[in-house]
Amino acid sequence: MGMSVAIIGAGAGGFYTAAALIKELPDCRVDVLDKLPTPYGLIRGGIAPDHQSSKKIAKVFERTAMADNVRFLGNVEVGRDVTLEELRNTYDAVVLATGAPADRTLGIPGQDKQGVFGSAAFVGWYNCLPEERFLNPDLSTETAVVIGAGNVALDVARLLAKTGDEVRVTDMSHYAQDAIDDAPIKDVLIYARRGPLQAAFTHKEIKEFGELENAVTLVDPDVLPAEDEELVAKGRGSQQKNVDLMRGYSSNKGDEKPVRVHINFYAKPVEVLGDDAVTGLRMEKTVVEEDGSCVGTGEFFEVPCSLVVACIGTHGQPMEGVPYNESWQQFENEDGVIEPGLYAAGWAKRGASGTVATNHPDGVAVAGHIAELTPDAGKAGPDGLDAMVAERNLRPVSFEEWKKIDDAEVAAAEHGAPRRKFTTVEEMVAFLDA
Ligand SMILES: Cc1cc2nc3c(=O)[nH]c(=O)nc-3n(C[C@H](O)[C@H](O)[C@H](O)COP(=O)(O)OP(=O)(O)OC[C@H]3O[C@@H](n4cnc5c(N)ncnc54)[C@H](O)[C@@H]3O)c2cc1C
Fold first, then answer.
1. Which atom of ligand 1 lies nearest, measured to the CA of 357?
2. 264, 288, 310 — which closes off a domain?
3. Pocket, ligand 1, Cβ cutoff 6 A
Protein backbone atom coordinates (compact mmCIF):
# COMPACT_ATOMS: atom_id res chain seq x y z
CA MET A 1 0.00 0.00 0.00
CA GLY A 2 1.25 3.51 -0.80
CA MET A 3 2.28 6.13 1.69
CA SER A 4 -0.45 8.36 3.13
CA VAL A 5 0.46 11.99 3.71
CA ALA A 6 -1.49 14.91 5.20
CA ILE A 7 -0.25 18.37 4.27
CA ILE A 8 -1.54 21.15 6.50
CA GLY A 9 -1.79 24.33 4.43
CA ALA A 10 -2.71 24.69 0.75
CA GLY A 11 -0.30 27.51 -0.06
CA ALA A 12 2.80 27.33 -2.22
CA GLY A 13 4.68 25.33 0.44
CA GLY A 14 1.88 22.75 0.60
CA PHE A 15 1.34 22.44 -3.14
CA TYR A 16 5.02 22.21 -4.07
CA THR A 17 5.27 19.38 -1.51
CA ALA A 18 2.20 17.62 -2.91
CA ALA A 19 3.57 17.89 -6.46
CA ALA A 20 6.96 16.52 -5.42
CA LEU A 21 5.33 13.68 -3.48
CA ILE A 22 3.20 12.39 -6.34
CA LYS A 23 6.23 12.54 -8.60
CA GLU A 24 8.53 10.77 -6.13
CA LEU A 25 5.91 8.27 -4.85
CA PRO A 26 3.29 7.77 -7.59
CA ASP A 27 1.24 5.40 -5.40
CA CYS A 28 1.02 7.74 -2.42
CA ARG A 29 -2.24 9.38 -1.28
CA VAL A 30 -2.03 13.02 -0.34
CA ASP A 31 -4.64 15.09 1.51
CA VAL A 32 -4.04 18.85 1.49
CA LEU A 33 -5.99 20.50 4.32
CA ASP A 34 -6.62 24.20 4.69
CA LYS A 35 -8.55 26.17 7.25
CA LEU A 36 -10.01 28.30 4.45
CA PRO A 37 -12.46 26.99 1.86
CA THR A 38 -10.11 28.48 -0.77
CA PRO A 39 -6.69 27.12 -1.74
CA TYR A 40 -3.39 28.92 -2.50
CA GLY A 41 -2.68 30.77 0.78
CA LEU A 42 -0.85 34.04 0.18
CA ILE A 43 -1.12 33.67 -3.58
CA ARG A 44 -4.76 34.58 -3.12
CA GLY A 45 -4.50 36.48 0.16
CA GLY A 46 -1.05 38.14 0.09
CA ILE A 47 0.18 38.90 -3.43
CA ALA A 48 -1.06 42.34 -4.40
CA PRO A 49 -4.41 42.43 -6.22
CA ASP A 50 -2.89 44.57 -8.99
CA HIS A 51 -0.20 41.91 -9.61
CA GLN A 52 -2.43 39.29 -11.20
CA SER A 53 0.36 37.82 -13.31
CA SER A 54 2.17 36.73 -10.12
CA LYS A 55 -0.94 34.73 -9.14
CA LYS A 56 -0.90 32.64 -12.33
CA ILE A 57 1.20 29.97 -10.63
CA ALA A 58 -2.09 28.83 -9.06
CA LYS A 59 -2.89 27.17 -12.42
CA VAL A 60 0.11 24.89 -11.96
CA PHE A 61 -1.02 24.00 -8.43
CA GLU A 62 -4.50 23.31 -9.81
CA ARG A 63 -3.07 20.46 -11.89
CA THR A 64 -1.59 18.94 -8.72
CA ALA A 65 -4.86 19.34 -6.83
CA MET A 66 -6.70 17.51 -9.63
CA ALA A 67 -4.36 14.52 -9.66
CA ASP A 68 -6.16 11.25 -8.82
CA ASN A 69 -4.21 10.65 -5.63
CA VAL A 70 -4.49 14.22 -4.25
CA ARG A 71 -7.46 15.67 -2.37
CA PHE A 72 -8.02 19.24 -1.20
CA LEU A 73 -10.04 19.57 1.99
CA GLY A 74 -10.73 23.23 2.60
CA ASN A 75 -12.53 24.60 5.65
CA VAL A 76 -10.76 22.09 7.92
CA GLU A 77 -8.61 23.74 10.54
CA VAL A 78 -5.99 21.73 12.35
CA GLY A 79 -6.23 22.59 16.03
CA ARG A 80 -9.96 23.32 15.77
CA ASP A 81 -11.52 20.51 13.72
CA VAL A 82 -8.83 17.85 14.00
CA THR A 83 -5.67 17.75 16.07
CA LEU A 84 -2.16 17.25 14.82
CA GLU A 85 -1.91 14.16 17.00
CA GLU A 86 -4.97 12.66 15.31
CA LEU A 87 -3.47 13.32 11.89
CA ARG A 88 -0.18 11.79 12.94
CA ASN A 89 -2.04 8.69 14.10
CA THR A 90 -3.91 8.55 10.78
CA TYR A 91 -1.24 9.25 8.13
CA ASP A 92 2.28 7.96 7.59
CA ALA A 93 3.56 11.51 7.37
CA VAL A 94 2.26 14.98 8.18
CA VAL A 95 3.72 18.15 6.63
CA LEU A 96 3.22 21.53 8.27
CA ALA A 97 2.90 24.13 5.52
CA THR A 98 1.02 26.64 7.62
CA GLY A 99 3.01 29.70 6.54
CA ALA A 100 4.07 32.62 8.74
CA PRO A 101 0.82 34.48 9.27
CA ALA A 102 1.48 36.55 12.41
CA ASP A 103 2.63 40.15 12.19
CA ARG A 104 5.88 41.21 13.81
CA THR A 105 5.19 44.20 16.02
CA LEU A 106 7.07 47.48 15.99
CA GLY A 107 8.26 46.91 19.57
CA ILE A 108 7.85 50.58 20.51
CA PRO A 109 5.58 52.41 22.98
CA GLY A 110 2.08 53.00 21.61
CA GLN A 111 2.28 50.23 18.99
CA ASP A 112 -1.23 48.97 19.85
CA LYS A 113 -3.02 52.27 19.28
CA GLN A 114 -5.98 52.38 16.94
CA GLY A 115 -4.88 53.08 13.39
CA VAL A 116 -1.65 51.02 13.61
CA PHE A 117 -1.77 47.81 11.59
CA GLY A 118 0.63 45.04 10.68
CA SER A 119 0.99 44.15 7.02
CA ALA A 120 -0.50 40.64 7.38
CA ALA A 121 -3.72 42.13 8.76
CA PHE A 122 -3.84 45.07 6.34
CA VAL A 123 -2.97 43.03 3.25
CA GLY A 124 -5.42 40.33 4.35
CA TRP A 125 -8.12 43.01 4.65
CA TYR A 126 -7.70 44.36 1.13
CA ASN A 127 -7.26 40.85 -0.27
CA CYS A 128 -10.50 39.50 1.26
CA LEU A 129 -8.98 37.15 3.82
CA PRO A 130 -12.03 36.15 5.88
CA GLU A 131 -10.15 36.62 9.19
CA GLU A 132 -9.51 40.27 8.31
CA ARG A 133 -12.89 41.02 6.75
CA PHE A 134 -13.88 43.26 9.64
CA LEU A 135 -10.55 45.02 10.24
CA ASN A 136 -12.12 48.24 8.90
CA PRO A 137 -9.03 50.48 8.90
CA ASP A 138 -10.00 54.13 8.89
CA LEU A 139 -8.52 55.59 5.68
CA SER A 140 -10.07 59.02 6.23
CA THR A 141 -6.65 60.58 6.59
CA GLU A 142 -4.50 62.86 4.43
CA THR A 143 -1.27 61.18 5.54
CA ALA A 144 -0.58 57.46 5.69
CA VAL A 145 2.73 56.05 6.91
CA VAL A 146 4.16 52.74 5.75
CA ILE A 147 7.13 51.33 7.67
CA GLY A 148 9.43 48.91 5.86
CA ALA A 149 11.93 48.49 3.07
CA GLY A 150 10.62 45.49 1.18
CA ASN A 151 8.13 44.75 -1.55
CA VAL A 152 5.24 44.37 0.91
CA ALA A 153 5.77 48.00 2.01
CA LEU A 154 5.75 49.01 -1.65
CA ASP A 155 2.54 47.01 -2.30
CA VAL A 156 0.74 48.75 0.56
CA ALA A 157 2.02 52.23 -0.35
CA ARG A 158 1.21 51.78 -4.04
CA LEU A 159 -2.34 50.61 -3.38
CA LEU A 160 -2.98 53.46 -0.94
CA ALA A 161 -1.76 55.89 -3.59
CA LYS A 162 -3.93 54.45 -6.36
CA THR A 163 -7.21 55.91 -7.53
CA GLY A 164 -10.58 54.19 -7.16
CA ASP A 165 -10.48 53.49 -10.90
CA GLU A 166 -7.04 51.90 -10.65
CA VAL A 167 -8.07 49.53 -7.86
CA ARG A 168 -11.49 48.68 -9.32
CA VAL A 169 -9.85 46.72 -12.15
CA THR A 170 -8.14 44.44 -9.61
CA ASP A 171 -9.56 41.70 -7.38
CA MET A 172 -9.08 43.81 -4.26
CA SER A 173 -12.05 43.35 -1.91
CA HIS A 174 -14.91 45.62 -2.92
CA TYR A 175 -15.01 47.18 0.57
CA ALA A 176 -11.29 48.08 0.33
CA GLN A 177 -11.83 49.50 -3.18
CA ASP A 178 -14.56 51.73 -1.76
CA ALA A 179 -12.41 52.79 1.20
CA ILE A 180 -9.49 53.70 -1.10
CA ASP A 181 -11.80 55.52 -3.49
CA ASP A 182 -13.21 57.61 -0.62
CA ALA A 183 -9.90 58.20 1.16
CA PRO A 184 -8.60 61.80 1.13
CA ILE A 185 -4.98 60.56 1.20
CA LYS A 186 -2.56 63.18 -0.12
CA ASP A 187 0.74 61.83 1.17
CA VAL A 188 1.96 58.29 1.59
CA LEU A 189 5.22 58.26 3.53
CA ILE A 190 7.41 55.16 3.36
CA TYR A 191 10.14 54.96 6.01
CA ALA A 192 13.07 52.57 5.74
CA ARG A 193 15.56 52.21 8.60
CA ARG A 194 18.52 51.73 6.32
CA GLY A 195 19.66 53.29 3.07
CA PRO A 196 18.68 52.89 -0.58
CA LEU A 197 21.38 50.30 -1.19
CA GLN A 198 20.15 48.07 1.64
CA ALA A 199 16.47 48.20 0.67
CA ALA A 200 14.98 44.86 -0.41
CA PHE A 201 12.72 46.44 -3.06
CA THR A 202 12.79 44.70 -6.41
CA HIS A 203 13.29 46.75 -9.54
CA LYS A 204 9.89 45.93 -11.03
CA GLU A 205 8.10 47.12 -7.89
CA ILE A 206 10.02 50.36 -7.53
CA LYS A 207 9.53 51.10 -11.22
CA GLU A 208 5.74 51.04 -10.78
CA PHE A 209 6.04 54.17 -8.67
CA GLY A 210 6.81 56.07 -11.83
CA GLU A 211 3.59 54.84 -13.45
CA LEU A 212 0.87 55.80 -10.96
CA GLU A 213 -2.06 57.68 -12.46
CA ASN A 214 -2.60 60.16 -9.65
CA ALA A 215 0.56 60.01 -7.58
CA VAL A 216 4.08 61.31 -7.98
CA THR A 217 7.01 59.71 -6.17
CA LEU A 218 9.63 61.70 -4.30
CA VAL A 219 13.03 60.75 -2.91
CA ASP A 220 15.45 63.10 -1.17
CA PRO A 221 18.40 63.35 -3.60
CA ASP A 222 20.83 63.83 -0.70
CA VAL A 223 20.31 60.27 0.58
CA LEU A 224 21.08 58.64 -2.76
CA PRO A 225 24.62 57.39 -3.16
CA ALA A 226 26.68 58.86 -5.93
CA GLU A 227 26.81 56.89 -9.15
CA ASP A 228 29.53 54.65 -7.95
CA GLU A 229 31.43 52.22 -10.12
CA GLU A 230 32.73 50.55 -6.99
CA LEU A 231 29.18 49.55 -6.01
CA VAL A 232 28.55 47.94 -9.37
CA ALA A 233 31.89 46.17 -9.15
CA LYS A 234 30.85 44.73 -5.76
CA GLY A 235 27.95 42.99 -7.46
CA ARG A 236 25.32 45.41 -6.31
CA GLY A 237 24.00 45.94 -9.80
CA SER A 238 20.33 45.53 -8.91
CA GLN A 239 20.45 47.99 -6.03
CA GLN A 240 22.32 50.41 -8.26
CA LYS A 241 19.52 50.07 -10.83
CA ASN A 242 16.99 50.88 -8.09
CA VAL A 243 19.05 53.91 -7.11
CA ASP A 244 19.07 55.04 -10.74
CA LEU A 245 15.26 54.89 -10.77
CA MET A 246 15.03 56.73 -7.47
CA ARG A 247 17.38 59.37 -8.81
CA GLY A 248 14.72 60.01 -11.44
CA TYR A 249 12.07 60.34 -8.70
CA SER A 250 14.31 62.71 -6.76
CA SER A 251 13.94 65.35 -9.45
CA ASN A 252 10.13 65.41 -9.10
CA LYS A 253 8.74 68.54 -7.48
CA GLY A 254 5.70 67.04 -5.77
CA ASP A 255 3.03 69.20 -7.42
CA GLU A 256 2.82 67.20 -10.65
CA LYS A 257 -0.08 65.05 -9.36
CA PRO A 258 -2.54 65.30 -6.45
CA VAL A 259 -0.95 62.52 -4.35
CA ARG A 260 2.68 62.20 -3.30
CA VAL A 261 4.55 59.03 -2.31
CA HIS A 262 7.69 59.87 -0.34
CA ILE A 263 10.31 57.14 -0.10
CA ASN A 264 12.35 58.06 2.99
CA PHE A 265 15.51 56.35 4.21
CA TYR A 266 17.57 56.34 7.41
CA ALA A 267 14.73 56.77 9.93
CA LYS A 268 12.99 54.43 12.38
CA PRO A 269 9.87 54.89 14.50
CA VAL A 270 10.53 55.06 18.24
CA GLU A 271 7.06 55.90 19.57
CA VAL A 272 3.47 55.95 18.34
CA LEU A 273 1.89 59.21 19.49
CA GLY A 274 -1.74 59.87 20.43
CA ASP A 275 -4.26 58.86 23.10
CA ASP A 276 -6.33 55.86 21.99
CA ALA A 277 -5.70 56.42 18.30
CA VAL A 278 -2.47 57.25 16.51
CA THR A 279 -1.96 60.95 15.77
CA GLY A 280 1.68 60.72 14.78
CA LEU A 281 4.98 58.91 14.93
CA ARG A 282 8.12 59.98 16.72
CA MET A 283 10.99 59.02 14.47
CA GLU A 284 14.74 58.82 15.00
CA LYS A 285 17.26 59.36 12.24
CA THR A 286 19.66 56.46 11.71
CA VAL A 287 23.01 55.69 10.16
CA VAL A 288 24.35 52.44 8.76
CA GLU A 289 27.75 51.63 10.27
CA GLU A 290 30.71 50.10 8.45
CA ASP A 291 29.82 46.68 9.91
CA GLY A 292 26.32 46.96 8.45
CA SER A 293 24.54 47.65 11.74
CA CYS A 294 21.92 50.37 11.81
CA VAL A 295 21.96 52.71 14.80
CA GLY A 296 19.98 55.74 15.94
CA THR A 297 21.69 59.13 15.78
CA GLY A 298 19.78 60.66 18.73
CA GLU A 299 18.15 63.14 16.33
CA PHE A 300 14.35 62.92 16.48
CA PHE A 301 11.45 64.30 14.48
CA GLU A 302 7.67 63.85 14.45
CA VAL A 303 5.35 62.84 11.61
CA PRO A 304 1.63 63.63 12.07
CA CYS A 305 -0.52 60.81 10.67
CA SER A 306 -3.55 58.73 11.58
CA LEU A 307 -2.78 55.53 9.68
CA VAL A 308 0.38 53.44 10.11
CA VAL A 309 1.01 50.12 8.36
CA ALA A 310 4.07 48.27 9.65
CA CYS A 311 5.45 46.05 6.90
CA ILE A 312 8.31 44.68 8.94
CA GLY A 313 7.78 40.96 8.46
CA THR A 314 5.67 38.14 9.77
CA HIS A 315 6.37 34.97 11.68
CA GLY A 316 4.99 31.49 12.25
CA GLN A 317 2.66 30.45 15.02
CA PRO A 318 3.42 27.61 17.43
CA MET A 319 1.34 24.44 17.22
CA GLU A 320 0.71 22.11 20.14
CA GLY A 321 3.13 19.22 20.18
CA VAL A 322 5.64 20.74 17.73
CA PRO A 323 9.05 22.04 18.84
CA TYR A 324 9.14 25.76 18.15
CA ASN A 325 12.16 28.02 17.91
CA GLU A 326 11.21 31.16 19.83
CA SER A 327 14.03 33.29 18.45
CA TRP A 328 13.46 32.35 14.82
CA GLN A 329 9.70 32.13 15.44
CA GLN A 330 9.28 29.05 13.27
CA PHE A 331 9.15 25.28 13.76
CA GLU A 332 12.45 23.64 14.74
CA ASN A 333 13.52 21.58 11.74
CA GLU A 334 16.51 20.33 9.86
CA ASP A 335 16.08 20.51 6.10
CA GLY A 336 12.32 20.30 6.70
CA VAL A 337 12.50 17.34 9.11
CA ILE A 338 10.99 18.10 12.51
CA GLU A 339 11.15 14.42 13.43
CA PRO A 340 10.56 11.27 11.36
CA GLY A 341 6.93 11.43 10.24
CA LEU A 342 6.59 15.18 10.84
CA TYR A 343 7.92 17.79 8.40
CA ALA A 344 7.77 21.50 7.60
CA ALA A 345 7.74 23.21 4.21
CA GLY A 346 7.49 26.74 2.86
CA TRP A 347 7.38 29.64 5.29
CA ALA A 348 6.57 27.30 8.19
CA LYS A 349 10.01 25.81 7.56
CA ARG A 350 12.12 28.83 6.56
CA GLY A 351 10.30 31.84 7.92
CA ALA A 352 8.79 34.61 5.85
CA SER A 353 11.21 35.21 3.03
CA GLY A 354 11.47 34.77 -0.70
CA THR A 355 9.05 34.46 -3.54
CA VAL A 356 6.51 31.74 -4.34
CA ALA A 357 9.16 29.80 -6.28
CA THR A 358 11.56 29.86 -3.32
CA ASN A 359 9.26 27.31 -1.66
CA HIS A 360 9.77 24.75 -4.42
CA PRO A 361 13.01 23.17 -3.14
CA ASP A 362 11.47 22.72 0.34
CA GLY A 363 8.73 20.56 -1.15
CA VAL A 364 11.22 18.46 -3.08
CA ALA A 365 13.39 17.97 0.03
CA VAL A 366 10.43 16.96 2.20
CA ALA A 367 9.16 14.50 -0.43
CA GLY A 368 12.65 12.97 -0.47
CA HIS A 369 12.58 12.51 3.31
CA ILE A 370 9.08 11.02 3.24
CA ALA A 371 10.16 8.58 0.53
CA GLU A 372 12.56 7.05 3.07
CA LEU A 373 9.70 6.05 5.40
CA THR A 374 8.05 2.63 5.35
CA PRO A 375 4.24 2.84 5.03
CA ASP A 376 2.42 1.58 8.12
CA ALA A 377 -0.50 -0.69 7.23
CA GLY A 378 -2.09 0.22 10.57
CA LYS A 379 -2.62 3.85 9.55
CA ALA A 380 -6.06 4.52 8.10
CA GLY A 381 -4.92 7.44 5.87
CA PRO A 382 -7.61 9.44 4.02
CA ASP A 383 -10.35 6.98 5.13
CA GLY A 384 -9.48 7.81 8.72
CA LEU A 385 -9.90 11.52 8.06
CA ASP A 386 -13.21 10.89 6.31
CA ALA A 387 -14.42 9.07 9.41
CA MET A 388 -13.47 12.03 11.63
CA VAL A 389 -15.17 14.45 9.21
CA ALA A 390 -18.40 12.42 9.30
CA GLU A 391 -18.31 11.88 13.07
CA ARG A 392 -17.78 15.59 13.78
CA ASN A 393 -20.15 16.94 11.18
CA LEU A 394 -17.40 18.96 9.57
CA ARG A 395 -18.03 20.71 6.23
CA PRO A 396 -14.91 20.21 4.13
CA VAL A 397 -14.78 22.02 0.81
CA SER A 398 -13.48 19.82 -2.00
CA PHE A 399 -11.45 21.07 -4.95
CA GLU A 400 -14.49 20.71 -7.23
CA GLU A 401 -16.41 22.92 -4.82
CA TRP A 402 -13.58 25.45 -4.77
CA LYS A 403 -13.85 25.55 -8.58
CA LYS A 404 -17.53 26.48 -8.18
CA ILE A 405 -16.53 29.31 -5.83
CA ASP A 406 -13.86 30.32 -8.34
CA ASP A 407 -16.34 30.36 -11.23
CA ALA A 408 -18.89 32.34 -9.20
CA GLU A 409 -16.27 34.93 -8.24
CA VAL A 410 -15.17 35.35 -11.85
CA ALA A 411 -18.79 35.63 -12.99
CA ALA A 412 -19.49 38.33 -10.38
CA ALA A 413 -16.59 40.54 -11.53
CA GLU A 414 -17.33 44.12 -12.63
CA HIS A 415 -15.34 47.02 -14.13
CA GLY A 416 -12.88 44.68 -15.88
CA ALA A 417 -11.75 43.13 -12.58
CA PRO A 418 -10.63 39.48 -12.71
CA ARG A 419 -13.08 38.45 -9.96
CA ARG A 420 -15.19 39.72 -7.09
CA LYS A 421 -14.19 37.64 -4.09
CA PHE A 422 -16.45 36.17 -1.47
CA THR A 423 -15.55 37.81 1.82
CA THR A 424 -16.50 35.30 4.51
CA VAL A 425 -16.37 31.55 5.00
CA GLU A 426 -20.11 31.54 5.80
CA GLU A 427 -20.93 33.18 2.44
CA MET A 428 -18.86 30.59 0.58
CA VAL A 429 -20.38 27.62 2.39
CA ALA A 430 -23.92 29.03 2.01
CA PHE A 431 -23.29 29.47 -1.73
CA LEU A 432 -22.14 25.85 -2.03
CA ASP A 433 -25.03 24.51 0.03
CA ALA A 434 -27.68 26.56 -1.79
C1 LIG B 1 1.98 40.68 1.12
C2 LIG B 1 2.77 39.65 0.36
C3 LIG B 1 2.99 39.80 -0.99
C4 LIG B 1 3.71 38.86 -1.70
N5 LIG B 1 3.90 39.04 -3.03
C6 LIG B 1 4.57 38.13 -3.74
C7 LIG B 1 4.72 38.26 -5.15
O8 LIG B 1 4.27 39.24 -5.74
N9 LIG B 1 5.41 37.28 -5.83
C10 LIG B 1 5.91 36.19 -5.18
O11 LIG B 1 6.51 35.30 -5.83
N12 LIG B 1 5.79 36.02 -3.83
C13 LIG B 1 5.13 36.96 -3.10
N14 LIG B 1 4.98 36.79 -1.76
C15 LIG B 1 5.58 35.60 -1.12
C16 LIG B 1 4.72 34.34 -1.27
O17 LIG B 1 3.38 34.68 -1.09
C18 LIG B 1 5.17 33.27 -0.26
O19 LIG B 1 6.48 32.86 -0.61
C20 LIG B 1 4.31 32.01 -0.25
O21 LIG B 1 2.96 32.31 -0.36
C22 LIG B 1 4.54 31.20 1.05
O23 LIG B 1 3.81 30.01 0.93
P24 LIG B 1 3.44 29.10 2.19
O25 LIG B 1 2.70 27.95 1.64
O26 LIG B 1 4.64 28.82 3.01
O27 LIG B 1 2.48 30.00 3.12
P28 LIG B 1 1.01 30.52 2.85
O29 LIG B 1 0.84 30.97 1.46
O30 LIG B 1 0.75 31.50 3.94
O31 LIG B 1 0.06 29.24 3.06
C32 LIG B 1 -0.20 28.72 4.34
C33 LIG B 1 -1.58 28.07 4.31
O34 LIG B 1 -1.76 27.36 5.53
C35 LIG B 1 -3.10 27.49 5.95
N36 LIG B 1 -3.16 27.21 7.38
C37 LIG B 1 -2.50 27.87 8.37
N38 LIG B 1 -2.76 27.31 9.56
C39 LIG B 1 -3.60 26.27 9.33
C40 LIG B 1 -4.23 25.30 10.18
N41 LIG B 1 -4.05 25.30 11.50
N42 LIG B 1 -5.04 24.38 9.61
C43 LIG B 1 -5.25 24.36 8.26
N44 LIG B 1 -4.67 25.27 7.42
C45 LIG B 1 -3.85 26.19 7.95
C46 LIG B 1 -3.43 28.94 5.58
O47 LIG B 1 -4.83 29.16 5.49
C48 LIG B 1 -2.72 29.09 4.24
O49 LIG B 1 -3.57 28.78 3.15
C50 LIG B 1 4.25 37.73 -1.03
C51 LIG B 1 4.05 37.58 0.35
C52 LIG B 1 3.30 38.53 1.04
C53 LIG B 1 3.08 38.36 2.52
1. 11
2. 310
3. 8-14, 33-36, 41-43, 46-47, 51, 54, 77-79, 97-99, 101, 123, 152, 155, 346-348, 354-356, 358-359
